[in-house]
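Researcher: I'm preparing a figure for a lab meeting and need a structural model of a single chain. I don't have an experimental structure, so a prediction will have to do for now. The sequence is pasted below. Please return the structure as tokens so I can convert it later.
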Amino acid sequence: MGGRGGSSRFSSKSNEKSADIIKVQMKGSEKQIKWAEDIREQMNAVYDKAISLFEAAGNYDGAKVIRQRQAALNSHAESWDIINLFGDTRISGKSDPESVANDFRKLHAVYRVRLPETLTAKKLLLR
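Model: Understood. Here is the structure written out token by token.
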């Protein structure tokens, strides 16, 4: 399994804002692409709000990890992987801090618990 503990890979004062989000064109049927794009939009909204909350709390390491997940999501071309991993995750879409935290916890659980079925899914989960 991955290495827990040890030194952090991220600097504690990195407050770099992410550049414009570049999204790749997804592969799959029209229906799969539409569904995966909807999931991706919901996830990006949660990630953007979570980054703001993390940075407001001074947790720049956490914000950097979220940016990495967001970049992996937006550069992922396989619609099926996004649907398979995140399709059953229910996002409230609310903007209050408690709802954002709950939505973020749901997404974070996928990264911690789900097992990737393909090599591309493994890449999406940053493993």
